[in-house]
Specification:
Elements: E1 3-5, E2 18-20, E3 28-32, H1 37-57, E4 61-66, E5 69-75, H2 81-86, H3 98-108, H4 111-114, E6 117-121, H5 127-134, E7 138-143, H6 148-155, E8 163-167, E9 176-181, E10 184-189, H7 212-226, E11 232-237, E12 240-246, H8 251-267, H9 271-274, H10 284-295, H11 300-303, H12 321-328, E13 334-338, H13 346-352, E14 356-361, H14 368-377, E15 381-384
Length: about 400
Amino acid sequence: MQEYELKYGCNPNQKPARIYMEGKELPIQVKNGRAGYINFLDAFNGWQLVRELKKATGLPAAASFKHVSPAGAAVGLPLSDVEKKIYWVDDMEIEFTPLANAYIRARGADRMSSFGDFISLSDVCDAATAQVIKREVSDGVIAPGYTDEALAILKEKKKGNYCVIEIDPDYEPAPVEHKEVFGITFEQGRNELVIDDAFFANIVTENKELPEQAKIDLAIAMITLKYTQSNSVCYVKGGQAIGIGAGQQSRIHCTRLAGSKADNWWLRQSPQVLGLQFVDGIKRADRDNAIDLYMGEDYMDVLADGAWEKIFKVKPEVFTAEEKRAWLDQNCDVALGSDAFFPFGDNIERAHRSGVKYVAEPGGSIRDDHVIETCNKYGMVMSFTGLRLFHH
């Protein structure tokens, strides 16, 4: 197959649309359903991300993509009982395989953003992972293969129309890539930068203790940023991205956006949220929306008389700002990556409020000394990578 005809391009009015390779076969097989233009953008970016995460960590990896940026990315570490509950898998009677755990983490960290995602898996999709995918609202999945049982499960999704793509794991693209905008062709060398332990060797803060888990988390942050629309910032903890701020014109807005998502991930684990009693039969997306509102400033949208009765069995107490701050102050050892330098120390101040201890950024700002000074104030460890990771 040298080309694949798409239903339409980014929008229904953009026709004709296809993906193709000149004189070569496409390195994919569409095993089920029909993929669209944006689906393939998400799939190919996501596949590169999880492939790199697998190489960097040795662990199965998964990504949840929306609109050509990851909503979540993670490696296959075991899930705690609390994590199983906040990711809505505590009721599943499956083998929690490393690949299933990777997707559960990638999907669950920011469930509001990952709703309707396109999934990327680093390894052959097993039945357990397929069972998790089956119950989520998703557009499709790309992986280097599928077991017979997994493929059968996925083919049942979306009335048989779920998009399942298999990619050749040995495929390597040409070293020079092209992109056309307004009839004009852009050409550049592919970003083949390898992110490993040596990437974080230049530690510029007073605190220079960078434990192994922090190196893994920083690698996850930077590899995730490599495939996130810039400007972008990524918070990571325990092998998973917990907050991604993508495509913001201002870096502090990236840091705030990603930080608020990281905060929500941590707040979901609080006794106040874990103790919410939902009415029977409520849909998973409605639970996610209710939790998001309950934790935010618009909590009365779900706590007002006439509203809460449709969501909760028992009316919850207001989750006060003081209670939220006290819980957030317990978060610690979070890693933070930035795709370009922090121009001001205000980014570090904001990161500190979300439990950040480890930071990686290129450096090179005229105010680097102020950024370093702010890190030193909080005992953070910061590495200057010297390399920017813009992606457009």
